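Posting for a labmate who doesn't have an account.
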Amino acid sequence: MGSMSKKFAVILGASALALAACSSDSGDSADSGSGDSGGDTVASQYDMSGIDLSIGSKDFDEQLILGQMMVQAYEAAGANVDDKVNLGGTAVAREALLSGEIDMYMEYNGTGWTVHLGQEDPSFDPDELTSGVREMDAAENNIVWVGQSPFNNTYGFASSPAATEANGGPFTLQTMMEYVRDNPDAVVCMESEFPDRPDGLILTETATGIELPDAQQNILDTGVIYTETAADNCDFGEVFTTDGRIPALGLTLVEDPGVNILYNVSATIRQDTYDEAPDAFDGITDAILAPLDNIKMAELNARVSAEGEEPAAVARDYLIEQGIIAG
């Protein structure tokens, strides 16, 4: 993993905006868009009747939204969808895909390259990185990567209000690690998998030359990290840079000069499932992902994480707005 210390390009998340929301809940997804009245919608262009499709996701807000987008879009195209959105962490979702428990879920190119395929030195060109992952995962695991989002939801850190004030403004990764080193009571809050991921904490430690002692690591659930950092119970919190809670809670992103790697998202689909309707999987997935830049994804994330809306409702609004399903 030593060679992972090379700097990689990163696109930092944009601030969240607010959209008008339609009321719904996760139980509405089965009725959210029927191909019968789709007219000129994207979903209405494909006939997936007779295809059984189990769709999963990881367990954080962005993934719940993306998972519900797929559930509702493929149902609208006529597929018989088993909604398994919100499976758990990365390892759980990937194993479910490989074992056949699910047929597809959204995954990030950086995760595919480093975690699933065990590679180092990922490209910081998103097209090149996704292409490399696509070719290798198909050859080794019969997993097809479809589409690619413009947004890049990379890992990052946010500083608490108190730490930011003490620093006189935003930290860089270097000054953050120096602050933690020089303040033994300082705490960095992270998800359980982040300290051990090859694309996680090791990149910051290697780039800064400073290791984070176990005693200064606090492992929390994803959502709790944001609120605990905002409450000054964590000096720094590991975050996803497209998360709408960063601006909503008054957190300050730690400036990253290009240490954390790229995380553009694609649909990952079992080869035998993809072969049942390749045109539909390509067309519907591309329609979902193409408009999702950093601003739009942060906007949607904020509706769930900051405003308390249901992921299914946010997904439905987006699909209607983009002409993928009927209103």
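Reply:
Got it, the structure tokens are right above this. The two ends are 49 Å apart (CA to CA).
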